[in-house]
Amino acid sequence: MNDYPATHEGRTQLVLGIETSCDETAAAVVARTADGQGRILSSVVRSQWEQHRPYGGVVPEIAARAHVECLDEIIADALREAGIDFSDLSAVAATGGPGLIGGVLVGLTEAKAIALVHDLPFIAANHLEAHALTPGLTEDLKPPYLLLLVSGGHTQLLLIEDVGRYVRLGTTIDDALGEAFDKTAKLLGLPQPGGPSVEKAAHGGRADRFNLPRPMLGRPEPHFSFAGLKTAVRLAAQAAAPLDDQGVADLCASFEQAVVDAVVDRTRTALRIARTRAAADVLVVAGGVAANQRLRGGLAELAARESVRLSIPPIALCTDNAAMVAWAGAEHLARNNTNALDFAARARWPLDADATPVIGSGRLGTKA
Ligand code: KG4
Ligand code: ZN
User: pLDDT by residue (tens digit) across 310-362?
Assistant: First the structure.
């Protein structure tokens, strides 16, 4: 990390953020006042989903190439929407990981070039940290709080003690939750991305028709597992074949309910740990799966029972975006934590370097 002189303190900072770690190309400009308040001046997100659709999932090579093709234009759009020029910026931040390495490289290289040409401080933001700090931007929420991050790539329970101080309480030992939704949809012949189609199909379904497992229920450590549930859905679908529309609705509803029961149980355990460690009495939920209504309902009930506040950023800021990256950059800039231009892209970059590997775990890659 470089130490920039304190000239960045004491005035409003404008930070350009760039996000290219998965299948969204995004750029945004946020302002951070001297007293730490955030405002989004622009946030442009372009999804590549149509390019990946024929393959049924994100293809890293296609993703990286698609980022290259549109990133300049998206940055120009973000600056124009914010009504500013490169010369107005205080810093430039890009996701430095974790994520698909080809995509991360594209965003990082672009940000470094902008920093070099316009003589700006550069920050390599951790994508997970960017999700984690979003409530500071959207509702001026300061740590400590507990974060439940549920997306297509990540499923984690993180205690956010302070900016830069994170304790991973739980993670998935196999699939991410969004991935479980996507695989369930694929199995039932529903369109991708699977989360919204499973949710739609579950409307009018009976959640008690299929008896599916609630993985990891009651375990003392708040880890997750969804691979067994996915297999159980497949076996249930085979046993009940051929499934009519009502059958698909019932299976989707039963799947969703199993997910909610498991996530609520794991989150309750994490909340209790979080409250003893850092008096955290706010539960923040982020990631694309936070859009799910049944999950929101279950978490709202949990929050009421446990007397904690539930905070879910607007869905456009729960899913991948660059405003969160710019904000993480602004938070670090305010602390004079900037990076040298030789920062290397990271496929893996755990927020909590001290987190012990999960016993009996399978892959603990970027999903963890
Ligand atoms: O955070 P996100 O947009 O991208 C990353 O994975 O980083 O999350 C996408 C994931 C996908 O797996 C998608 O199926 C899931 O979030 N998702 C949902 C819903 N909307 C999106 N899962 C359940 N219910 C939804 N309504
Ligand atoms: Zn994400």
Answer: 999 999 999 999 999 999 999 999 999 999 999 999 999 999 888 877 754 44
Per the CB < 8 A criterion, the answer to whether 345 and 97 are in contact is yes
Dig out the tokens for 285 from the structure: 């939920």
CA–centroid distance, 182 to ligand 1, in Å, is 8
Structure tokens at 301: 């009930």
Residue with tokens 């460690």: 277
| Cβ atoms of 339 and 123 closer than 8 Å | yes
Of 220, 204, 299, the closest CA to residue 261 belongs to 299
> What is the pTM assigned to this prediction?
0.91
Q: Same domain for 96 and 152?
A: no
How buried is residue 201: exposed, middle or buried, by Cβ count under 10 Å (0-12/13-18/19+)? buried
60: preceding bond cis by omega (within 30 degrees):
no
* Token representation of residue 35: 């007293």
Q: In the prediction, which pLDDT does 51 show?
A: 87
The protein residue whose alpha carbon is closest to atom 12 in ligand 1 is: 178
- Tell me the residue range of the domain where 161 lies: 143-315
Q: How far apart are CA 54 and CA 215, in angstroms?
A: 32
Pocket test for ligand 1, best of 128, 257, 319 (most atoms within 8 A of CB): 319
Residue 363 lies in a domain: no
Query: Same structural domain for residues 169 and 289?
Result: yes
Q: Which of 84, 5, 112, 17 is nearest to 329 (CA)?
A: 17
